[in-house]
Amino acid sequence: MSNPALETPQLADEDWILITHLLEIKQRDLLAEIRHTDKRAFREALHERLDQVERLLRQMPVPAVIARTV
């Protein structure tokens, strides 16, 4: 029996493109925030979040050609 929580949601290409775009924006925001953060613990937490965002971006099922058109 498959686990529905582990299955890829069935979304339209436009939805995947939007999600990818939002993750890319978050990635840029985190990089900027990391550069401007003095507190080591906070910077480490931001790096963990950045790793999570980048992991999600690598898993996105959006074809590269479609994602670049946004």
Description of the structure:
- The protein is mainly alpha-helical and 70 residues long.
- 67% of the residues lie in helices and 0% in strands.
- Helix 1 (13-35) runs antiparallel to helix 2.
- The longest helix is centred in the middle third of the chain and has 23 residues, at 13-35.
- The mean pLDDT is 86.
**On the 0-100 scale, what is the average pLDDT?**
86
Number of helices: 3
- What is the succession of H and E elements? HHH
Uncertain segments of ≥5 residues (pLDDT<50)?
none
The gyration radius over C-alpha positions equals 15 Å
Give the strand tally. 0
Helix-strand makeup class? mainly alpha
Described by the principal axes of the CA atoms, the overall outline is: elongated
Largest sheet: none
The residue fraction in helices comes out at 55-70%
- Quote the distance from N terminus to C terminus: 37 Å
Strand content: under 5%
Task: Outline the secondary-structure elements.
Layout: H1 13-35, H2 40-59, H3 64-67
Keywords:
single chain, 70 residues, mainly alpha, 3 helices, elongated
Quick overview of this protein structure:
Helices cover 67% and strands 0% of the residues.
